[in-house]
Design a protein that fits this description.
The protein has helices spanning about 40-60, 70, 140-145, 220-225, 315-320, 360-365, and strands at about 85-100, 100-105, 120-125, 125-135, 155-160, 180-190, 205-210, 225-230, 240-250, 250-255, 275-280, 285-290, 295-300, 305, 325, 330, 335-340, 350-355, 365-375. It is α+β, with helices and mostly antiparallel strands. Bound molecules: copper (II) ion.
Length: about 400
């Protein structure tokens, strides 16, 4: 599905260390982490004070916090982000339906939109400007609307990093994008401040719509408008491959379930939202996100990880012993975490199941497979494609075809 998807049978050189686009195209690194943006001047602070006074006045008067006029006084960027270090363009589009279910996706181009959307990457200290173009037809948004007075539009609402109210991506703050229009959102991956005791933003997060259907974007999320965000700290281990595992309602992984969650071609697997594949020894990163209303657990066969921010453990044995080693982690709605594992580490190539360990979820199809190939890129025999499938046919990643997730 992406231009960068490699053929596992290629005899070419080993991939360069560093992030690769696998689970959808990935926003490229831009600014060097060594040059954090300069601190903002006093202008931003003055604007914040003015905005706070306006907001307080409006709330005191019984109005909502932001009226149209007040929005102009709110700071466009978080303190510390003087100028965006990098820009990304994102499109929200309608994708082919899954049965009668509407599917939407974000993409770096309209043609490559998918669910999950492209994984965004930032380095702590970096400020990113994301311009979102809404190409979802108004008629589609109208169909998804649960209240005829709710505005039509899509948005970007991000977790974990800093943004001002103008980049909140909600209808309440008027920070959404009507059909045919665009809007720029600013995300700031603030660094840890040791003196103040505030944490940094390095971690595994996600972004999603907060407008489609109603004031919480419930229909936007359940239709596919979500994606992952990784904020790395300088020195973090770099994965060879990154995949999204979005666990949601109706026992879904990335809105698919059963055989539709794993459509890897056994001869020529192409990495993507429905094909988790790696060569033995490659460092594989999972961004795990919970959407919807259910609790889940994320479990991988044959692999375990340290329950740290990255899944990697460092230091002495005594220090490492302070960190639990896990192969199963609980995930609630809105939660996100990431792990890095070494594919096939001491267990070799194989078809390793990934599933929710709530038994009735896995029994109903909440499973997929991580295919670990040998060093030459050969798919090991058996497994992964013989399970009692409740669905048929392979679907191209992100197309929504062959997806089984019915009400
Ligand atoms: Cu589950």
């Amino acid at each position: 599905m992406t231009a960068s998807a490699w053929r596992l049978t290629d005899d070419g050189p080993a991939p360069e260390p560093g992030p690769k686009a696998e689970s959808g195209p990935k926003a490229e690194f831009g600014a060097t982490p060594d040059t954090p943006p300069a601190r903002s001047g006093s202008t931003t602070r003055r604007m914040l004070v003015v905005a706070a006074i306006v907001v307080l006045s409006l709330v005191g008067a019984g109005g909502f916090a932001v009226a149209g006029g007040a929005a102009a006084l709110l700071p466009e960027r978080p303190e510390g982000c003087n100028q965006p270090d990098r820009t990304v363009t994102l499109y929200a589009v309608e994708l082919p339906r899954d049965g009668n279910q509407i599917r939407l996706g974000y993409g770096l181009t309209p043609q490559t939109a998918s669910y999950p959307g492209p994984t965004m990457e930032m380095i702590e200290g970096e400020c990113l400007a994301v311009t979102l173009h809404n190409q979802v037809p108004a008629a589609t948004l109208e169909q998804l609307r649960t209240d005829p007075t709710h505005p039509l539009g899509v948005s970007l609402h991000v977790h974990g990093v800093k943004y001002t109210q103008l980049s909140d991506g909600t209808a309440q703050s008027f920070s959404y994008v009507p059909p045919g229009q665009s809007r720029t959102y600013t995300w700031y991956a603030k660094k840890r401040d040791r003196a103040a005791g505030t944490p940094g933003t390095a971690g595994y997060w996600w972004y999603h719509d907060h407008v489609v259907g109603g004031p919480h974007g419930t229909k936007g999320i359940s239709s596919g408008l979500f994606g992952g965000l990784v904020v790395r700290r300088v020195g973090d281990p770099k994965p060879d491959r990154t995949y999204m595992s979005v666990f949601g309602d109706q026992q879904s992984i990335n809105l698919r379930r059963g055989a539709a969650a794993d459509t890897c071609d056994p001869v020529n697997p192409q990495p993507g939202p429905t094909c988790i594949v790696a060569k033995k020894g490659e460092r594989v990163e999972f961004i795990v996100v919970g959407i919807g209303n259910d609790m889940h657990t994320f479990h991988i066969h044959g692999h375990s990880w340290a329950d740290t921010r990255t899944g990697v453990v460092t230091g002495t044995n005594a220090e490492a012993d302070q960190v639990p080693t896990v192969d199963n982690k609980t995930l609630g709605p809105g939660d996100s975490f990431g792990v890095q594992i070494v594919a096939g580490d001491s267990v070799g190539p194989g078809h390793w199941m990934i599933h929710c360990h709530m038994q009735f979820h896995s029994d109903a199809g909440m499973y997929t497979t991580m295919h670990v190939l040998d060093e030459n890129g050969n798919m090991p025999p058996g497994g992964g494609h013989e399970h009692s499938a409740t669905s048929s046919g392979a679907a191209p990643a992100g197309s929504g075809a062959g997806v089984h997730q019915h009400k």
